[in-house]
């Protein structure tokens, strides 16, 4: 039996972790749980502290576990896996454009992986005629890196650099 080849390394891999301030809130929720149980004694106080902190930590950790990857010719965003061949142009969005695409420019049919604590994003057109999704909106701390990885995966790394340079020229 031949050993299987290792899976290809992702050309882009980002985890949208929750900010540190949210972990302070987790600690405060743990203290609140302890204070609620305080009249019942020491052991219930410790149980309330640990239980409330653990529940809050699970909630924050699961919300902050969203990953965006470009691997093996696919864009993997959360639970979605989209072949790069079904995607069109990718656009890195600055803070103002990202806000606009989250609000008044948003299309209800779009796939959106948003995190409120990540101000920048990437918008990628979906060109598959069988898919009613017009675009994919992904919060990203490194939107230029994601756009470059998508273009490189498509095979047009040189075009991505030219498109990115043309995008910055009007705003300069």
Strand content: 15-25%
First and last CA, distance = 58 Å
Low-pLDDT runs of 5+ residues are 157-172
Biggest β-sheet: strands ordered side by side in the sheet? 1-2-3-4
Structural class: alpha+beta
What can you tell me about this protein's structure?
The protein has 172 residues and is α+β, with helices and mostly antiparallel strands. It has helices at residues 20-37, 42-63, 95-102, 143-154, 157-171; strands at residues 12-15, 67-71, 74-77, 80-83, 87-93, 111-113, 121-126, 135-139. The strands form two sheets. The chain has a four-stranded antiparallel sheet. It starts with 11 loop residues before the first strand and ends with a helix.
How would you briefly describe this protein structure?
The chain has 172 residues and is of the alpha+beta class. It contains 5 helices and 8 strands.
Give me the secondary-structure topology:
Layout: E1 12-15, H1 20-37, H2 42-63, E2 67-71, E3 74-77, E4 80-83, E5 87-93, H3 95-102, E6 111-113, E7 121-126, E8 135-139, H4 143-154, H5 157-171
Parallel strand pairs: 6-8
Antiparallel strand pairs: 1-2, 2-3, 3-4, 5-7, 7-8
Helix pairs in contact: 1-2, 4-5
């Amino acid at each position: 039996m031949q050993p299987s080849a290792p899976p290809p390394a992702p050309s882009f891999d980002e985890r949208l972790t929750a900010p540190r301030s949210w972990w302070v809130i987790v600690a405060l929720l743990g203290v609140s749980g302890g204070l609620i149980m305080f009249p019942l004694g020491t052991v219930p106080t410790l149980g309330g502290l640990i239980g409330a902190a653990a529940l809050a930590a699970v909630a924050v950790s699961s919300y902050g576990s969203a990953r965006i990857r470009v691997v093996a010719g696919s864009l993997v965003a959360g639970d979605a896996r989209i072949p790069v061949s079904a995607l069109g142009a990718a656009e890195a969005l600055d803070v103002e454009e990202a806000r606009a695409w989250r609000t008044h420019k948003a299309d209800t049919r779009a796939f959106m992986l948003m995190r409120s604590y990540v101000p920048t994003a990437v918008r990628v057109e979906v060109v598959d005629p069988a898919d009613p999704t017009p675009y994919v909106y992904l919060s990203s701390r490194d939107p230029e890196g994601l756009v470059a990885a998508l273009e490189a995966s498509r095979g047009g790394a040189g075009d991505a650099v030219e498109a990115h340079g043309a995008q910055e020229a009007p705003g300069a």
